[in-house]
Write a structure and sequence with these properties.
Chain lengths: 399, 115
Amino acid sequence: MHAAAPAPQGPPPYQVVGKHAVMPETRHDEAARFNYLANMNQFLSAEFLPRVKRAYDKRALPRFHSEHGRPPEHRREVRELMSEEPAYQAWSAMRRATMEQRQQAGRSVVLRQLDRLNATAKAAAAEPGLQLDPNFLPPRYLTGVDHHCMPGGYLCELAPDDVSAPANYDVGIFATTGGALGRYSDGGGMAVAEWLKREHPEFKPRRILDLGCGLGHNTLPLAQAFPHAEVIALDAAAPMLRYGHARAVSLGVTNVRFVQGNAEAVKEPDASFDLIVTCMFLHETSYTAIKRVFGETRRLLAPGGISLHIEQPQYQNMDVYEQFIRDWDAYNNNEPFWTTMHEMDLTELATEAGFDRAKVFETGVRAVVDAALFPQAAAAQKQEDYGRSAAWYVFGARA
Amino acid sequence: MNDTIALANAKAKGKRPWFFDDREAERVFNVALALMQELSVARERIDTLERLLENKGLVSRTEIESFTPNSAEASARSQMHKELIGRCLRVLQQELEALEEAPGTAATPEELRHT
């Protein structure tokens, strides 16, 4: 009898990441760089972050107690306290550096083959399913900062018909998440599709809307789960849509239309969608925008329709230390709306938008991935990479 | 530095946070982290080479692990290690050399102007 093969340790190798026509090609050392970054991120969340918590419990918290005679009551107090804690300083410096290195690694892969990538996406644009608006004005929340430290942001255009931003996003998301999102980085969309099939087996949406779809990582699993549905993938950034469309064409998904538009004012008739989703989109908008997005969601949803918003958990009723750690990206990774969004009362917001309070619900989903290639991600994850993990909070409302 | 290298390194719009009490230490730490990455990449490449050589039956892992350099090879390697150590620790060496410099030994630009 053979001894059982040892359980795989660490993230899967970069080589298992799914390829398609516009996916940048990676050379040996470029893939090795992503492998290093995936491992470094896993080290930071699984090994180093618990040490930061220990330093908080053993050193920082007693200090705060002796000075104030009480524990911290707000994450701001924790932040102030921890900003002087060497373990936290080191973790933060490494997390920030790793993020910058990931961007550099992705961009260096993309830039050397950008002409070919742009030409491939342009050729795919001859296929139906891409609707750009040359007069579109992007909202200020997309131009004010470069979200999660992507130089140039989602709108970056280094050349005509540019797809450098989404190509960089796609080629490197494996490194950021330690491979936890699966072969096509679509674990979120797969999770939503699985949740719908399980919780609402009779639900057969005819029209599906994905707001802030990006390059469509999480749109395609829905389109594949409901192959007879017409799917509209809406985003403000033309580069993301060009790439997303070319990627969908290459992967043989034909029931998605990639449309450039503003999620705050969607050019579609009232009650024209059965399913509306956002996946890690709301936290990249603004206070004003999120209200409008909820309003549009209510307007566009047909009777009996379902809206689902996939995000990291809200801060209400959360331990102040966990809030502080989860808030790291807001301060240190160019996520300016992260804090406000996670403090908002989404139920109140949905009610104001016209949803029936009794039809609002909350749940959680975990990334659905190919267990053969991603055994670690497929198993229930023990460690939590606050703000990045492949387990999400779902806020939903039915019309 | 050509354009592509600089462009790949581009800064994202938004204020960069710093975490250490000493900004200089954090700058050096960032360089060290980048070197850590590149070392890891180089090691992965060596690992690929060793596995390919072994799979093709050209060189076995055992041969690599038990490789014993002869005297000349050992000297060359020793030189290699010393050069690397010297290069990496240059700044420390120069600090110590400065201690040996008697005060006022080095001329100032002012003094040299009319020499």
